[in-house]
Write a structure and sequence with these properties.
about 170 residues; Cytochrome Bc1 Complex, Chain D, domain 2
Length: about 170
């Protein structure tokens, strides 16, 4: 699904990540209860976007073209931490604690607006991509992430014990 990254790109991402704040984004083990939507809370609670952001409707149709554009952005910006299969096991994320999110497990369990807000704003070691990606590129990335649930349904053996369906969302 994703092409191999150039080693120089991975190294650059690693250097950038290790130079960032010691506060890291939460969600490594997704068996939790949601905290109040306070993006400044890094205490290990689930990262919840503000309700108005989570309620936003995706203006970009989730079709093959959008998903392909999102996959390209993912390969460039996200794979180093979240991993080639989006399991949260990327090389640059190995030393992060908590670990990067298993996006395949999150796919389908969060609203498009929730993902878009998190991608745009970042937190801790996760950069805010709103200065790098256009709004439509963020929504394409959301479509790619949400489409991962279809891969999970086709491939039940995705090497993930981090099933997002094991908890209930309380807002």
């Amino acid at each position: 699904m994703l092409k191999k990254l150039n080693l120089a790109n991975v190294a650059a991402c690693c250097i950038a990540l290790f130079g960032m704040s010691s506060q890291l984004f939460a969600e490594g083990n997704h068996a939790h209860k949601h905290a109040k939507p306070d993006h400044q809370n890094h205490g290990g609670a689930h990262w919840a976007s503000p309700k108005d952001a989570a309620a936003r409707t995706n203006p970009v149709i989730s079709d093959d073209a959008s998903i392909a554009r999102g996959a390209k952005s993912y390969a460039t910006l996200c794979v180093s931490c979240h991993g080639e299969q989006a399991l949260g096991d990327g090389l640059a994320g190995v030393s992060l604690n908590p670990k990067p999110t298993n996006l395949k497990a999150m796919s389908g369990g969060h609203s498009d607006g929730d993902f878009a807000w998190k991608i745009a704003n970042g937190r801790g070691a996760m950069p805010a991509w709103k200065g790098t990606l256009s709004e439509n590129e963020i929504w394409d990335l959301v479509n790619f992430i949400q489409d991962l649930k279809n891969d999970s349904n086709k491939n039940k053996d995705n090497n993930s014990n981090d099933s997002h369906s094991k908890h209930k969302h309380k807002h």
